[in-house]
Structure to design on (266 residues):
């Protein structure tokens, strides 16, 4: 349902790879709620071509950018501002990748080149997106930036290996940058800690299917879907959450507060 919550707002949405991507749903809902935005992804991900469908559906321009490359990010903001006709009101960081996970390397034997790559792609890219926006003064006052995280940043999930440490860094960047950007420009920065979700990134994790079912039983409301996650992100981009910043916000059907559910004991 459209409440036109984002009417008049301009945004940048990263990470829509295919229709399962959380970012894909965020783009659809942002469009429904009256926002205009650009879409971006790593040039290599563009080759799949799926993102063109989303761009057509939402009347958005695609600006390829590798989120680890400062020059690409500068171009992303400059072209977005030019195309959308003004400074940016919201940014979604929906980027995650671990080569160690892809290659099934256990946590105790991590390859450090892969670890560095994972940090750069999945956490430093968030700092870079913020630092470039800050330098170019690309985000309006009361603008809102959201990145997606996972509870392995707080508690141990052995299969999540190096991404657990990387998500902890991502959440810390939200707090620290949130302080500075909030003080100077009233820009809000939060992370949303989402339930396991069946996407390309999620499905790449060993044992994901079993764990998805475990989390679903553990959560009083069940796992939160990508659609629900998108709704939550929209609320964070809207003016209804103006005073929320520097938070890691659980969006997980109650999973994070549940010790054990009765279903798990059966
Ligand atoms: N799926 C889950 O279970 C789950 C749970 C909690 C949090 N998350 C987080 O949600 C976010 C989105 O993931 P998703 O599940 O929608 O999967 P996804 O695979 O659809 O999205 C990941 C995106 O990151 C992009 N990307 C990778 N390297 C990049 C680079 N160098 N520059 C720019 N973009 C790059 C990919 O092209 C892809 O679009 C990630 O941060 C992920 O960790 C996912």
């Amino acid at each position: 349902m459209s409440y036109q919550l984002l009417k008049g707002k301009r945004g940048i949405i990263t990470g829509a790879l295919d229709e399962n991507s959380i970012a894909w749903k965020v783009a659809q809902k942002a469009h429904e709620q009256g926002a205009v935005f650009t879409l971006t992804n790593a040039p290599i991900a563009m080759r799949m071509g799926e993102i063109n469908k989303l761009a057509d559906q939402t009347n958005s321009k695609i600006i390829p950018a590798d989120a680890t490359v400062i020059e690409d990010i500068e171009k992303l903001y400059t072209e977005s501002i030019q195309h959308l006709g003004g400074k940016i009101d919201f940014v979604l960081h929906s980027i995650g990748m671990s080569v160690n996970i892809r290659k099934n390397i256990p946590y105790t034997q991590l390859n450090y080149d892969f670890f560095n790559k994972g940090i750069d792609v999945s956490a430093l890219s968030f700092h870079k997106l913020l630092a470039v926006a800050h330098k170019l003064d690309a985000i309006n006052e009361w603008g809102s930036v959201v990145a997606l995280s996972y509870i392995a940043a707080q508690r141990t999930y052995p299969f999540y290996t190096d991404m657990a440490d990387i998500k902890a860094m991502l959440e810390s960047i939200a707090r620290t940058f949130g302080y500075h950007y909030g003080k100077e420009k009233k820009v809000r920065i939060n992370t949303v800690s989402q339930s396991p979700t069946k996407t390309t990134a999620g499905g790449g994790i060993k044992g994901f299917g079993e764990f998805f079912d475990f989390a679903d039983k553990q959560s009083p409301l069940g796992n939160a879907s990508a659609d629900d996650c998108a709704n939550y992100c929209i609320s964070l981009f809207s003016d209804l959450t103006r005073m929320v910043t520097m938070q890691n916000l659980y969006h997980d059907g109650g999973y994070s507060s549940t010790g054990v559910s009765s279903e798990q004991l059966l």
About this structure: The pocket of nicotinamide-adenine-dinucleotide is lined by residues 14-15, 17, 21-23, 41-42, 45, 66-68, 94-97, 121, 148-150, 194, 196-197, 199-202 (CB under 6 Å). Residues 112-136 form the longest helix (25 residues). The longest strand covers residues 139-149. The beta strands are 10-14, 36-40, 61-62, 88-93, 139-149, 188-194, 248-251.
